[in-house]
Specification:
The complex is a heterodimer. By secondary structure, chain A is of the alpha+beta class. Helices cover 29% and strands 23% of the residues of chain A. The mean pLDDT of chain B is 97. Chain B folds into 3 domains: 46 residues, Uridine Diphospho-n-acetylenolpyruvylglucosamine Reductase, domain 2 (2-Layer Sandwich), CATH 3.30.43; 108 residues, Uridine Diphospho-n-acetylenolpyruvylglucosamine Reductase, domain 3 (2-Layer Sandwich); 96 residues, CO dehydrogenase flavoprotein, C-terminal domain (Enolase-like, domain 1, 2-Layer Sandwich), CATH 3.30.390.50. The chains are: A alpha+beta, B alpha+beta. The structure holds flavin-adenine dinucleotide (FAD).
Chain lengths: 779, 266
């Protein structure tokens, strides 16, 4: 592998600028003549906008313009779209209400923008925003799923009667019902998957910059996928044609899914920059992030498991209500359907699965993909059911899982997914060994003698990543293809630039992607530059989400590398008067195998660009591109085990141990993989113990700041023990599967299974706060 | 933040004079309460008068029978004061539990008790130890100082200059952290005076802010031990109830934290 090649824990190149405060984020960018935007946001969850009086605000110092929702409608800026069409079980398309970038008539969640003030300074914009007088007529609000679906509930959108967006099913209902009828045992659970606020460290920001002479727009934005942003802004929002719009996503301080989507604020900044003829910057504050970044999760589920007399699973039946908030965000429709129900087979051989998913509108912030997106919800359902089944049947939870594991591959589940490879038993073994599972009973007894409640919980997760095959997602309703593109440029002096459509906002691509080049060419990673996040530089790209950057993005780079290497070998062979087939690449040298003849990469590159002596007919230059579209998803899987103690007097949970055994296929940089797992586990544990977005019945967000929304902190978390078992992914040449979401997908079930084991009461909702745990113990 | 005028007086008298001149002046100490509300535009003082640099307001004095903390002394300075740790370890310990290092290096005792957040830590110590609050005008006993949520006996413009804590025979503090804010979801300070009296104060629990807990005081007076509280029943009436803790949970915490505080006190 070499010191910087694949498999080496190379220190992250990008961290020097991040840890010394030299990162360049959107808010760091200051353009000549730049103005500042402040949105006027609804204080009500549901109201008619009767009138907006901007006259006083217009007279305030420094005010350049005050623009309203009606103006954005008048300018024919398109409504926000949802990019994945879902069809209900009755064959009707999903029922989507209109979402204008600023509300001209009706507001449907607290924080929705109705107007924007543009001023010379942010403070002046804030002052003037307070002077905008909006006359609201309050309407009754439906603040959660139950309130939205009950008879007589407030109606959010005329398009969606009863607030139901779609009622979608997957699997064979009749066969699944039959499996339940003939089951020896049935296990059932009611599950709430709590709503989360993403809280990336950097709040969202945007700068719109219109150049009148060129009729050209530039948008600087906090995006995980700038090309997708450009496509949507031009094709659907009518703000600028694609060739007249450059989207730049510079350093981005975390996304976790929440920066996939194209938000109203970006649209308004871009549109307003043309209206006022000056650059317009908006930087959200933390309060705006709580109220307007797309939230995650928020399901209510009834789940049932059927087993035969030998404890083999014969069926799984699930009914889920998913809260999509007040409007359908960009990929919201796919999260509780194709990213959720298709993973309900977990790691198990389940012959019959049927799931029904009903997505509803509520007067809350829109809900969309958040780290794991659908898969954490699925894994939680499956792993809570398995644990509950083991307790009900009085069998060891590890044994029950093992008995039902899928052991032959490829494996077609009843819910679309075809698992390509895996060794679930190996991960479980590794995790059990790491935590000394066999010794747990003794530890529990000892803890009991000291007055402590100790519990252990397993979670064997699987996810579909590398969100990918364009043809497959297209057939399921996706509005985009999910390939990735790359360009490899070898400069005349032999340094290398890799242009990638993947976007790095914390993942470490600037290091791992270089490692592939180091591996193949034997050049130091200091000679390689990763270029991303700018539609003017990078050909195209679908961006970073769904743990797809290695499996899809890096493979695209590999494909382009292969083309570059092939051409370079031809040039080297020509220069060395050897046969192209005899050329091998080693340590940055092109060598004629079995001889001492060689030529260094820079000389090959120089030859390509001077073009003085190239093989006949060869084009000058050394630069190649590739688009890569895989044939399947990848399937990272693993086993997490959590051991903890509960203080029965206070309900407080303390971790004893948390072990992970993940199978991510080949690891490019084990240190970065560990970091990804740590972060994912923190979010999964955060969901289980700490985090939960709560609205009151009027639709006000109660947890609208860190004083009430419990973000995980270092001392809330155990020291993780990570292990890896490896089956190489056959779907891509690198054998990689992806590691970005695993922790968030698998951790929460392990924690809840452990707490419920400790307290001997299975009725416990997330977040399992001390208050809830104490009530579960004491009633 | 709205525009404001910042002043940095060098004496208490100068501060009070500046306050009287301002139309809607506010004192500033550590700023860890005032600045966030100003940034959120929920407070708009015309003048901000910084007490944090007044030398007479900084320091910890320990005598044979009392610990006096001057008003602008930071939590960190109290937590790390050797003499304070020796005289009333529970008090220094309480200061060490406030917020995080940044908060402890800015926040002050004067700001904390003037603000009287119902979940703040210091009020529990002030009340349980029977401290006296000194101002530029008078001396106020702990029992008269706290007047409910965010309300105190302070008159408009009155400056806290110091808080004097009598050194008890025994004292202990136990805090159950609010999961999000890390203030006290419930914190209980127990103290046994040198005269044998017992005072117990709970913070974070009551809808009216810091409060004495007579049932626990009585039980501990009879028998200073954690076990003495086993049978004590704390009513949930009047206690706060929110997403982090229902009133019955807080009632339980009052008892459990009191037991742990007694154990810590020895
Ligand atoms: C993130 C965070 C976590 C925190 N965690 C905790 C915690 O765990 N426990 C806890 O108890 N507290 C906590 N606090 C509160 C903090 O410790 C301070 O005690 C509090 O902010 C007030 O003190 P200050 O010096 O910052 O006062 P300031 O914010 O400067 O002032 C607060 C108020 O007191 C007035 N005031 C200040 N000094 C005087 C004086 N000498 N005389 C009269 N009036 C005065 C001011 O005018 C203002 O109205 C936390 C704060 C933050 C920001």
């Amino acid at each position: 592998m070499g010191v910087e090649g694949i498999g080496a824990s190379v220190v992250r190149k990008e961290d020097r600028r991040f840890t010394t405060g030299k990162g360049r984020y959107v808010d760091d960018i200051k353009l000549m003549g730049m103005t500042h935007a402040q949105f006027v946001r609804s204080p009500h969850a549901h109201a008619k906008v009767k009138s907006i009086d901007t006259s006083a605000a217009m007279k305030m110092p420094g005010v350049v313009a005050v623009l309203t929702g009606q103006q954005i409608v008048d300018d024919k800026v398109g409504n926000l779209i949802c990019g994945w069409a879902i069809t209900s079980k009755d064959g009707t398309p999903m029922k989507m209400g209109a979402w204008p970038a600023m509300a001209p008539e009706t507001v449907r969640f607290v924080g929705q923008a109705v107007a924007v003030v543009i001023a010379e300074t942010k403070n002046q914009a804030k002052d003037a925003a307070e002077a905008v007088v909006v006359d609201y007529e309050e309407l009754p609000a439906a603040a959660d799923i139950r309130a939205a679906i009950k008879p007589g509930a407030p109606q959010l959108h005329p398009e969606a009667p009863g607030n139901v967006i779609y009622d979608w099913t997957i699997g064979d209902e009749a066969a699944t019902d039959a499996a339940f009828k003939s089951a020896a045992n049935v296990v059932s659970l009611d599950i709430t998957n709590n709503r989360l606020v993403p809280n990336a460290m950097e709040p969202r920001a945007a700068i719109g910059d219109y150049n009148e002479a060129e009729e050209h727009f530039t948008l600087y934005t906090t995006s995980q996928n700038p090309h997708v942003a450009r496509l949507v802004l031009s094709a659907f929002y009518n703000i600028a044609p694609e060739h007249k719009l450059r989207v730049v996503a510079p350093d981005v301080g975390g996304g976790f899914g929440s920066k996939i989507f194209i938000y109203p604020e970006e649209m308004v900044a871009l549109w307003a920059s043309k209206k006022v003829g000056r650059p317009v910057k908006w930087t959200g504050d933390r309060s705006e992030a709580f109220l307007t970044d797309a939230h995650g999760r928020d399901h209510l589920t009834k789940a049932e498991l059927a087993l035969d007399a030998g404890n083999k699973i014969t069926g799984l039946r699930v009914k889920t209500y998913a809260n999509l908030g007040a409007y359908m965000s960009l990929f919201s429709s796919s999260v509780p359907t194709y990213l959720y129900a298709t993973l309900l087979s977990g790691q198990y051989n389940i012959p019959n699965i049927f799931a029904e998913v009903i997505s509803v509108y509520t007067n809350t912030t829109p809900v969309d993909a958040y780290r794991g997106a659908g898969r954490p919800e699925a894994s939680f359902v499956v792993e809570r059911l398995l644990e509950t089944a083991a307790r009900q049947l009085k069998v060891d939870p590890a044994e029950l899982r093992r008995k039902n594991f899928i052991t032959t591959f490829p494996h077609q589940t009843p819910v679309i997914m075809a698992y390509d490879v895996g060794d679930f038993g190996a991960s479980l073994d590794a995790a059990m060994k790491a935590i000394d599972y066999a010794g747990f009973a003794g530890r529990k007894a000892k803890a009991k003698s000291e007055g402590k409640l100790r519990g252990i919980g397993l979670s064997c997760y699987i996810e579909a990543c590398g969100i990918a095959p364009s043809k497959a997602v297209g057939s399921l309703g996706a509005g985009v293809g999910l390939w990735e593109s790359a360009e490899v440029r070898v400069n005349p002096v032999g340094t290398i630039e890799i242009l990638t459509g993947s976007h790095s906002h914390g993942q470490g691509h600037e290091t791992t992607f270089c490692q592939l080049v180091a591996e193949r060419l034997g050049v130091p990673i200091s000679q390689v530059q990763i270029v991303h996040g700018d539609t003017d530089k990078v050909q195209f790209g679908m961006g970073t989400y769904g743990s797809r950057s290695a499996a899809v993005g890096l493979t695209a780079i590999l494909k382009a590398m292969e083309k570059v290497e092939s051409k370079a070998k031809k040039i080297a062979a020509h220069q060395l008067e050897a046969s192209e087939n005899d050329i091998v690449i080693e340590g940055g040298m092109f060598k004629v195998a079995g001889t001492d003849k060689s030529i260094a990469l820079p000389m090959v590159a120089l030859a390509a660009y001077t073009a003085h002596n190239l093989p006949d007919g060869m084009e000058p230059g050394l630069k190649e591109g590739a688009f890569y579209d895989p044939t399947n998803f990848t399937f990272p899987a693993g086993a997490y085990i959590c051991e903890l103690e509960v203080d029965s007097a206070t309900g407080k949970t303390s971790f004893v141990n948390f072990v992970a055994a993940d199978d991510f296929g080949r690891l490019i940089n084990p240190m970065i993989v560990e970091g990804q797992v740590h972060g994912g586990l923190a979010q999964g544990i955060g969901q289980a113990l700490l985090e939960g977005a709560v609205y009151d019945s009027s639709g006000q967000l109660v947890t609208a700041s860190f004083m009430d929304y419990t973000m995980p902190r270092a001392d809330d978390l155990p020291s993780f023990k990570l292990n890896h078992t490896t089956t190489l992914c056959p779907g891509n040449p690198l054998g990689v599967k992806g590691c970005g979401e695993a922790g968030a997908i698998g951790a929460s079930a392990a924690v809840i299974n452990a707490i419920t084991d400790a307290i001997g009461n299975n009725k416990l909702e997330m977040p399992a706060t001390p208050d809830r745990v104490w009530h579960a113990i004491h009633g | 933040m709205y525009e404001t005028t910042y002043h940095r007086p060098s004496s208490v008298e100068e501060a009070a004079a500046l306050f009287a001149k301002g139309s809607e002046a506010k004192y500033l100490a550590g700023g860890h309460t005032l600045i966030p509300v100003m940034k959120q535009r929920l407070a708009a003082p015309s003048d901000v008068i910084d007490l944090g640099k007044i030398k007479d307001l900084i320091g910890v004095d320990v005598s044979s029978d009392a610990v006096t903390i001057k008003a602008a002394t930071t939590h960190s300075d109290v937590a790390q004061s050797g003499p304070a740790q020796k005289a009333i370890p529970a008090l220094a310990y309480l200061a060490s539990l406030i917020g995080d290092p940044a908060v402890r290096h800015r926040g002050t005792i004067g700001g904390s008790i003037a603000n009287n957040d119902p979940a703040a830590d210091y009020p529990a110590a002030v009340l349980a130890l029977g401290a006296t609050v000194k101002t530029n005008k008078r001396t106020i006993s702990a029992d008269d100082f706290f007047k409910g949520l965010f309300a105190t006996a302070l008159a408009d413009g009155e400056i806290i200059t110091a808080v004097t804590f009598p050194i008890p025979a025994k004292a202990g503090y136990a805090k159950f952290l609010h999961p999000a804010s890390r203030f006290a979801l419930t914190g209980v300070f127990v103290a046994k005076t040198k005269a044998g009296d017992v005072r117990v104060a709970a913070t974070g629990a009551s809808q009216n802010g810091v409060m004495r807990v007579p049932a626990i005081e009585a039980a501990l007076k009879a028998n200073w031990s954690a076990a003495a509280l086993d049978g004590v029943n704390i009513s949930a009436d009047g206690l706060m109830s929110d997403i982090h803790g229902s009133s019955d949970y807080r009632a339980n915490l009052i008892k459990v934290m009191a037991q742990r505080a007694v154990t810590a006190a020895g």
